[in-house]
Amino acid sequence: MEFARGSMLYLDDVSVSFDGFKAINGLSLMLAPGEMRAVIGPNGAGKTTMMDIITGKTRPDHGDVIFDQSIDLTRHDETDIARMGIGRKFQKPTVFETHTVADNLLLSLAGKRGVFETLLAQITGAEARRIEEILETIRLEERRDDLAADLSHGQKQWLEIGMLLAQDPKVLLVDEPAAGMTDAETMATADLLKRIAGEHTVMVVEHDMEFVRALGVKVTVLNEGSVLAEGSLDHVSADPHVIESYLGR
Amino acid sequence: MLLRFLLAAATIAVFIAAGSLLPARAASLETLLAELPEGGYDERAAVVTAIAGTGDDRAVALLEALAEGDLRQMKDGGQIVRVVREGRTHTAFDPLTGAEIGEISSRAASKIRVNNKLRRAIAAALGQLTLASPDRARRLAAAASVLKTGDPEQIEALDAALETETDPEVRTAFMDARAAAVLNAARPTAEKVAAIAQLAGRNDPQVLSIITAATTSDEPAVAAAAADALDRIEQARAAWGAVQNVWYGLSLGSVLMLAAIGLAISFGVMGVINMAHGELVMLGAYTTFAVQELIRSFAPGLFEVSLLIAAPLAFLVAGAVGVGIERGVCRYLHGRPLETLLATWGISLILQQTVRSIFGPTNQQVGNPDWMSGAFEIGQLTITWNRLWILLFALAVFALLLLILKRTPAGLQMRAVTQNRRMAEAMGIRSGWVDALTFGLGAGIAGLAGVALSQIDNVSPNLGQSYIVDSFMVVVFGGVGNLWGAFAGAFTLGIVNKFLEPYAGAVLAKVLVLVFIILFIQRRPRGLFALKGRAVES
Amino acid sequence: MKADPLLDLKSKLFLALLVAAAIVVPMANLVAAPGSDFYLPSFAVALFGKYLTYALLALSVDLIWGYCGILSLGHGAFFALGGYAMGMHLMREIGPRGVYGDPVLPDFMVFLDWKELPWFWWGFDQFWFACLMVLLVPGGLAFVFGWLAFRSRVTGVYLSIITQAMTYALMLAFFRNDMGFGGNNGLTDFRDVLGFDLRSDATRAGLFVASAAALGLGYLLARRVTTSRAGKVLVSVRDAEARARFLGYRVEGYKLMVFTLSAMMAGVAGALYVPQVGIINPGEFSPANSIEIVIWVAVGGRGLLLGAVLGAILVNGAKTLLTGWVPEIWIFVLGLIFVLVTLFLPKGVLGAFGTLSWRSGGARRGASAQPAE
Predict the structure, then answer these.
(1) What is the pTM of this model?
(2) Neighboring chains of C (3 or more beta-carbon pairs < 8 A)
(3) Which residue of A220, B182, B334, C132 sits 20 to 30 Å from the alpha carbon of A70, by its own alpha carbon?
(4) Residue B525 to chain C, least CA–CA distance (Å)
(5) Does the UniProt entry include the keyword Lyase (chain B) (predicted)?
(6) Domains, chain A
């Protein structure tokens, strides 16, 4: 896996089709450790399917998906990949609605995952402290004992990001974190993500151009399952192909 | 063996004697009849042979009467009559024309006696006569009779008949009969081996027993040829047995498909299992019963078309109940498939108990019209008409449904909702309306299945329960939202079931099929014909 | 500061009630004079004992359905298997007192002209072995079945349908005489258990107490599981299975654990049921029985352990009363319960009327919570 040297996430010539429809078509992408990357593209460009492939939900028809220079992700399932350190936030905020906010974070904390481990687990002081920290980061201290179902849409987004933080993964895949947020919330989210990057490798899929601009990172434009353009936001915005297939509409 | 040989030799002697005694007498049946009482048994045998020689049609009945000992000669006038005894009264008939002459006293006529030797001569003469009969059916019957008895005395008659016979089927029958006779005659080994080869082409229990008998022959070549032929016959029987199993499987498959296909479309479109589906089938069967009862009371002449009347009614009755279930219950449980499953189970209990209260818990008699009764054969395959009609009916329903789904706007909407409900709604499809329609259509087909099932199964309130698990299996095996899945699933399961039955017994076969499906679903959790893609995975 | 999560107020109340019942019911039968106001006839003791085993069975179904979203339509099979394991022991204990007087072979085997005991009947003359099998056979079947099903992610309606197929297949198999479990008639004509006459009042009282104890222990066990962090994971799996996977939980492992545990509980319930009703036959495997268990849970309140107990007792009490009163009407009522509870009482009786919330079990919204994905 020489070719993946120096990368945290490495996709090469990945394709997958559903009943003849090519959702991903020869996609290649590389993220360096600590890099934050924004991925944009029109509906059906294959953004979510790409995340499905990285997280083991969908198996590609062919192509390489290498994590941390050496691990072939196509050979592992979601659970394995999550435990290796790839966290994911869904497009539609997905939290455990019948658990409290604190419990959602508790279940996300890195560490105990085995059946018998959790059967006997007692919450430790370190765990409790970490939960408090995250609650503060995502500004949900007041809601700690409320059921996640009772949160607003934006708060659920934050909680899910908090759950990602609790996992302490090497790579965070964040699907549309700003959807349903107010402008202020959107900017706060961008700030949060920027803080996370550096320690973690982050891939953000987003439609909101203001948000992408606020992130101020390298942008990859996907279209019809492959990379259309890559570079700074200004650079890709000027690309005529991008304008034609995405921005122009 | 020896005795038969002696008898045969004696008969041949009689033939020769007859030939020399009556060389050129081209006598009519009437004159020969008059000669019958004269002389001893040998002379009488000669006359019998001469009678056969006339080829006269009336001779058959005459000789049969003689063999039975029914021919008597009137003491007064010497007329020969056939006497039928009934109790103490004796009635005389003309032996040739069959015309009644009248009642006679038992002492008025004396019996024309026959002994065993004469009876054999009569049998030979009869064989010759019937084998040469202008009536095709009679010739075939004669051949069958020789095949059965394997009477070596008939060989010559058969040879003679074969020379003039042109009908291919009759010729085959003659050759087979001759072969059977040859095996019993003192003939060269090669001829017997050829005879076995001839018989081996045929496939019935009769021939099987003849050849089985030949395996114990004193002549090793004959025994070997017989054993060999027996093997080949066994193979042919196994092959036909397989064909028969396929047929049974197709028949079971057609019933399963009818029962499952409605389930499959509502499962496909709405993602819910209708546990009351079996009861809708049962309602269809009871509709058939009710229609037949009404016809019996008011218009017995319509009985032959009762099913044609019942089918649309059953569709409507079950379909209406289906729409009622959807609008009344399932609609409110949308997106909660497990709750829907429980609620429809409750409905199934209510429907069952309602029917039980109205019609009683016992089986109801639903009649088969004439065109659904009986059976016919192809080779060794027996096909009953009702099963054949049900297969055709199932295929027709399937084709019609396919047409509705592929060619009508309603079908297009159903397929749209199956594939992506939310997108379909966004396109302006009223999914609630589609749900009701789908449910109603599925239920209506269940009603049709009930009409079909009423022809082959007991109509009782439990009818639905006995098919429901199997139809679930068909749906699960075939895959959701795909009619071809239900089609392939039903026929595969039907055939596999019927092939397992001879080895494992009916119950164990079913258990094995269920275990197979449970294992199969591990490998393909979404069935044979699963839809793929992101939309259906959630 | 915080109440003991394992034994909250409701749990304590319930266990106290159970202990009270375990004392009062036998006393009312054994000590109170027949004819007095406090006297409880013997049949009622057996009847209440049967309810307790049903409650334990409902508890086992609630554990998987209420807390993990696994709707098993074949849990009656585990109950019946536990029952058969116990029934086999009781058959062996008849010994030479059977109709045919064979010291080893049960009557039905002598009738079928069998010469020796099939291998799978070996060891059932020992009570401890039978008890072990009561746990191992249902547990083993659940483990194998669950391993196959959960590994390939058979979920939702599909899982329900194949669990139904499982119990249906077992029913067909047990109906066969060749299986060696008494075919149609099942196992019956038991004499005694551990040397106590099954028809004596004292034995019945003892079985009632044993059933109450089993229910109490089953409840505590279920409580222990559902209040643990693993219990929270189970609820997470129920509500958002994919999310749980992406957090790194091996979902199939959790499902397998709770499914197997639940099957063993059902097996114990079956084992206690058989000596109290005196018969076990293949009808116990019928799919209809298994679905009925689910409705007990739904009536009481899914995702509330006490709801399952309450539902089992309510529905079966109603069944006993109604079938004694107008037999035909029971099926109608049962059918209506299915429809009305799912439509109008999705949280069950306890969920709708219970005022105290206990979040630690994650159950407050259990009955109405929908999986988010």
Answers:
(1) 0.81
(2) A, B
(3) A220
(4) 6
(5) no
(6) 2-94+169-247 (3.40.50.300)
